[in-house]
User: Which sequence fits this backbone?
């Protein structure tokens, strides 16, 4: 039954007497190799740092590093799709190993001193994960900025806020939009938290408990630009909790945009007519020439739902005995793919918001209809007539019902006095001014001055807070990107010095 | 803000004044276009059938069909990767529309009579889904056959079945394996059920409620090789419940293999030593030369966990208002990808089982240790001495505890009589023969003759039932594949006749 | 560290030297005991059937069964909440064991001959699961009937069907509703399929591979009213795949109702005004007296989302090594709770539909607006003028855009001829009659006569098919309920005969 | 069709003409009312704080507060199960409203001034959520402490760490356990983060955008003991992202314990024999008297899997348009139940670890077998002979294979020199001392001194870090609990002053 192993297939030199079955290549190696583009650059950095650490530990003779480093630098400069990756040999690491051996002969064998395939992969993955988290962070920042801008723009645009999609009370559309911004700032926090997890170095852990080869974990962390080495070698190698954090955060971020998209799809229907999506966010029908479909919103919602499944998958695969590999085999691709998907969705959401056209008149018309001032009226009755709220509520409710019976869409002072007399057998004084003060949407929202409320000033104030948060986010991200770039330059420069020393 | 639309972009001629934003292309069209390889062939068949139906309805003039058909046949013969698909135009349908127009001019416009882009996509997808369901069905059949074979092979291999991974009672390893086969037969049922859903034709539904163009839905179904048209046009166009069925079935199938893999990973550890995986299922470590890792099992388990997330994602995206598209945008890729993944996992599982080496001696040693005959002993005391079971249980438990105290691994008749005397103050007659009859694993399992039980005969009988089910599965699958192939030949032949008529 | 065990705690007589820790009672036994009300009746039946089987096998002496049976019948007649269940002893089975021993002494010990606690639990659970599946089946049947009724009622009520919530083409509201009915019939199929799984008997499997005690599995299955014994003893004892089927089916059923509810929540908004929910489905606000919230719809949607989580949980816990118990510990409660939840949601959905008030005028107004006849117009141009569809589409799209520019909401023959001239440089003949035939919603839908289409006749025909399916469902359910009731009577009667024989 | 409403049913005085349908009570109100025990105390506090805020705003006349406050204090002292909650009236708030009106008459109506039912519920829920997060935090702290203790205890217990459950390299069992502790400290971080979300006050938001009633949100937050008011009123009322955080954190915490439990279930099998669970964590079989089932581990794993479903459910129900209620209807119960479940599981896990008996000899035996020193040997060859690692690896692998062929379980210096000669055609110098230094597990682990590595000193050092983290956690929790208790005392005291003022 022995299958021939391809030349250079590692197993064939270990205790494994045949090559992999085609079913194994297809289900296993091909799966892992699909991550090669994701890991390629990071594997290059990990290899360089490892060689430097071996060199600095006095383990790797300088004549060998002088051969290894140039070859590694050359591979670092090779794009992933120009490198001969091949699932017949296993994962990306295996293909690299074989190619290096092909180029350099046995000196390539030094690279594996004191390090597992897994360690190299984990380093590369964490670097890739950090990049993708920053991309999502950037899209979220744009989303916050777009919302802050539109919230400011519509700080005075009254509308009827709803529950159950039934008109509730007058509010401002800027307030409505600002709430999504507030939620989005928490997604920034989550992404920053997930970044911290990814930013611990798994380098220098040997088999898993450390190594007899004297590798300096602090130095390796510095060379690779991590914030520091993970505190426990087995944990930093195997723990997957940060993956679920990242993907859950991505799913939650997408879900926020989804929720807004779901609202907007309704608001964009002709029956509502509150908003119009920019043409660049729409799609035509091939059958129905009159259609203008808000396609971007469906794209967002579809992706968000799919991401919930991705997050679940991560949580599911976490649940396995320790050090079994299965929780990691799909993880690289799933995490990276999920972060990419979320980034695309959030970026699209930011563009939807930025280019959104809002029909203030349609909003205002709805705000003034459907008795949305009813609760304000009842409150005003409490404040002015000494009625308890429940009684005031009944009075207004009775008046509303009566007005609807007459097909009227607003109340008069008489409606209320009559209702009070009928229901409570009590006479209350209601002026037309009172009714107006509690019916005009603009006057109503002007009084919503509680912290974080819907009055124009509060909405603008909150929009500014969103903007400041976005500025801090931009600053934070820039620092991290700059640090990663500098680290990489330093690593390459240090490696070249090493070669130069020999020459 | 207007973005330039690429030439031939549909929106630009409808009510949409600009091309799509890059964010929309990236998040939406690119996503949809990624399904082009999946849908390419089916779209070709759908186009042909639609042209035939228009022709047969007397709608499409024969001089136009004579131009359209050859072009469509040419595209049908073009591999997907040789066709100029481009996300700038939208999904696969849009690219095809534009290419056909480029080749034929306005005559290409006939193709869209009475049909939406969605209908063509749904037809192509259901055809692709059917194919993938058959592939998974085939892998499952191989899994059942492999299990039936090993069950038969190990119908007499005694082992200690466990609960909580603690030895419970003697059984046969063939019985253990046969149980997985039984479960797998239900997965065959599930796949067949999911196939039935996919096998209803969505062709000829017009916008969604039918069309003023007189298309014959029965004829279209026949031309495309479906079992029949869906009973309600809106339902057959939009309902996604069958997708969740398919992916849930795939996840459940993979989970069965996962469960076996989880067991085998433990049984393959040196501490158990029950089984050895074939070398073609194993992987070496680059650091530790002594290792021989049962890699295939981790691959299976990782994929199964991931599939649970996929199934969840499908269930999640189902939950949306009707006719909104978002539940379908990711669905083609997710369903096809999930079925492919499950097929790879099950095929790998079948190969793991087929090539599994079982150490009968190790199994037998464990079967004879750890007092696995204790319950049989207690039952034998009930059957022979008239003790109630609870008392017999206490007697045996007492004797076991005493033997363990003495570091003995088996019981004697005296142990039991002494325990009965001590615990129950009662004298019972226990012969060495009685102890032996209820301690020897082979004798114990020989008596497990209940229907579906672990005696060798019952195991073989059950294995034969599995084999018969696998044969029926093979037959069912062959018929469906043959029918699909014939249908396609007929469709192409009929289309050619049409052209010939003109010439 | 030894904790005192409560008297009668099983462990204390086995190899376990202390009672359970409070943490174990709280997290484990209390969890299991929470299922006592669910299992109580079935455990009573399982005990009776087991005693009968032991008797018929000649294992249980008649003088003991004469003592056991009356005690078991008495417990069968005791409501669950009147029975002294106590988590200190373990699960429901353990409490029953102890109580029986308290009442009868050692004769109670016969009950455990050849049977595990697990087997009794599984039997009781499958019986409870069958009942709950029938309840959900009944609610679904009512849902189908309500939809069939309203579909018939609104077979002629024209409305504008939508995609992306944008008006698409005229259709009938009865067609829209009938689509949900069609989907619901597949849920009936799923529930019936899940029932078949639950309807296999796990009785008589001994430890798990059968028993040396000669129990007749066919006879046990008959006594308990199952369709037959499971084909493999280990499989029927441990396999959980049917649980996921049941809960996934429940989640899918609830999701269908959710989807309708989501539509209706939009249609019930004043901006749409298509439907009004019955007052008995609504809820008031304590703050806003004018509100009338369609609360039932939110309840449905909330439950459906929750059920997706339940289904996922079942799929997740399936993924575990074999015979480890963890996949079953929460399963009884989760499955029963999920089926109950789904039943409540579907029953509520049925009532929402049955009492729904539809505003035909509002529907008709929307059907006639927004150029919903545009595709029909284009098709009519194809049919009458020989234009290809794409050209006709462009002509109509151009005319629509021009009309909107002029703030007109309908097209004239001139609009089309002018558009054709401008766009195609071609003269086409368009009569007012042609425009009218393709613009009037009622005339449009009258022509949608494709199988399952939206013409009134087709809608009524489909509604009748739904009704017939509902009738078959009712018949199927009645037979199963009658069989269960008869079986139970027979079991009790047979048990009493046994006692009588002795007296 | 009008159904009679129960007296005091709110709807009947609003625009809703009938009572709720039984289906609505069952699926909706009963669901909400099931949260009454959870919310009861917090609703009492919310009511008191609201009355105080109305009083301080000069809205509520002092003679009415003097009547309201004593009644509210009485209800606060009433246990939930002694309060007449009834689903016929709606949720807990509705029952309280009606009962207060029954007791006080119309003066009760003041309580609803400027506040929704929802606001009261949200306050009560966030208070309850905070409590439950602290309970889980406490259980996690105990889990960390137990692991730190056992890690210290087994800092020198060598064992064979594994991957794929195949022996990899010698390590220490304390190192293995410490890794779980490290992961658990991140769960503490997550719970603290979730607490911060719950700790923002939703009080004083009026309908949702603020109120014309001048309520002071800062003061309300202070009265209720929150860290501060939420920054945006609509967001703090409706956002659910913190719920998913909490439940995901709970699921992740449980999953960590699950992973350990999964390992321990294997390690506790007789085939491994590494650990023995305390009797108080085990369960007997009613059939098999020899069994001693590690029941606690199955309980943990079952709960963890179920929690993944709960977390998914939360993510799923998040995905809904804004302000629709459905995302909250199940949330109170699901979040509280999930946190309770996780607390029980983690507490059980802490107790499993604390009472775990580890067999050092069994661990050591395995550590010394299966050539676990192979990688160390290869590394030693690199360090001493100048071989590159790949060549050294091949040499050792060859020697291992040869030794296994001879059924030997250890290597000699000659094995290695011979392998080098055969494989590399090279002579290397290998001393017995070299072989011994790289074969003796204790010597190997002594050299694993990398940060966070498995050497005894490093393990103890890490254990101390865990202990310090646990101490900080305890401090943090105590402060929060003390703050909550003081706040409540102050609130009650302030309320009483108010009453006294009047008297």
Assistant:
């Amino acid at each position: 039954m022995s299958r021939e192993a391809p030349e250079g297939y590692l197993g064939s030199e270990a205790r494994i007497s045949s090559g992999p079955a085609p079913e194994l290549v297809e289900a296993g190696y091909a799966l892992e190799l699909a991550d090669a583009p994701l890991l390629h650059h990071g594997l290059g950095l990990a290899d360089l740092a490892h060689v430097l650490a071996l060199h600095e530990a006095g383990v790797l003779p300088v004549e060998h590093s002088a051969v290894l480093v140039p070859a590694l630098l050359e591979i670092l400069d090779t794009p992933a799709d120009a490198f001969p990756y091949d699932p017949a040999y296993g994962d990306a690491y295996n293909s690299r190993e074989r190619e290096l051996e092909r180029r350099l002969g046995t000196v390539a064998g030094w690279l594996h001193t004191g390090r597992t395939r897994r360690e190299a992969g984990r380093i590369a993955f964490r670097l890739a994960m950090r990049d993708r988290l920053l991309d999502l962070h950037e899209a979220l920042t744009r989303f916050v900025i777009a919302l802050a801008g539109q919230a400011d723009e519509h700080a005075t645009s009254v509308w009827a806020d709803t529950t159950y999609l039934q008109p509730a009370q007058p509010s401002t559309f800027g307030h409505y939009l600002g709430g999504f911004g507030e939620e989005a700032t928490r997604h920034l926090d989550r992404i920053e938290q997930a970044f911290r997890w990814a930013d611990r170095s798994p380098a220098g852990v040997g088999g898993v408990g450390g190594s007899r080869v004297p590798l300096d974990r602090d130095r390796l962390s510095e060379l690779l630009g991590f914030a520091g080495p993970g505190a426990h070698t087995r944990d930093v190698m195997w723990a997957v909790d940060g993956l679920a954090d990242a993907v859950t955060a991505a799913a939650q971020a997408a879900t926020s945009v989804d929720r807004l998209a779901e609202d907007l799809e309704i608001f964009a229907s002709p029956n509502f007519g509150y908003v119009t999506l920019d043409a660049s966010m729409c799609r035509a029908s091939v059958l129905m020439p009159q259609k203008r479909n808000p396609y971007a919103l469906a794209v967002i919602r579809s992706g968000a739902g799919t991401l919930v499944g991705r997050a679940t998958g991560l949580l599911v695969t976490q649940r396995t005995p320790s050090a079994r590999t299965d929780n990691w085999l799909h993880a690289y691709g799933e995490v990276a793919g999920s972060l990419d998907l979320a980034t695309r969705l959030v970026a699209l959401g930011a563009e939807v918001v930025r280019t959104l056209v809002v029909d203030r008149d349609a909003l205002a018309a709805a705000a003034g209809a459907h008795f949305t001032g009813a609760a304000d009226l009842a409150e005003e009755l409490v404040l002015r007539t000494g009625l308890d709220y429940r009684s005031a509520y009944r009075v207004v409710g009775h008046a509303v019902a009566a007005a609807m019976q007459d097909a009227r869409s607003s109340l008069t002072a008489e409606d209320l006095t009559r209702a009070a007399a009928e229901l409570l057998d009590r006479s209350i004084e209601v002026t037309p001014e009172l009714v107006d003060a509690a019916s005009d949407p603009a006057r109503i929202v002007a009084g919503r001055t509680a912290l974080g409320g819907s009055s124009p000033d509060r909405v603008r104030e909150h929009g500014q807070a969103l903007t400041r948060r976005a500025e801090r986010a931009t600053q934070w991200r820039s620092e991290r990107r700059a640090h990663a770039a500098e680290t990489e330059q330093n690593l390459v420069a240090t490696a070249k010095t090493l070669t130069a020393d020999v020459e």
About this structure: Chain C touches chain A at residues 162-169, 265-266, 268-272, 285-295, 297-298, 312, 316, 319, 366, 369-372, 374-375, 378, 393-394, 396-397, 400 (CB under 8 Å). Chain C has three domains: 22-115, 119-366+459-490, 374-438. The first strand of chain C starts at residue 158 and ends at 163. Residues 119-366+459-490 of chain C form a domain with the Fumarase C; Chain A, domain 2 fold (CATH 1.20.200.10).
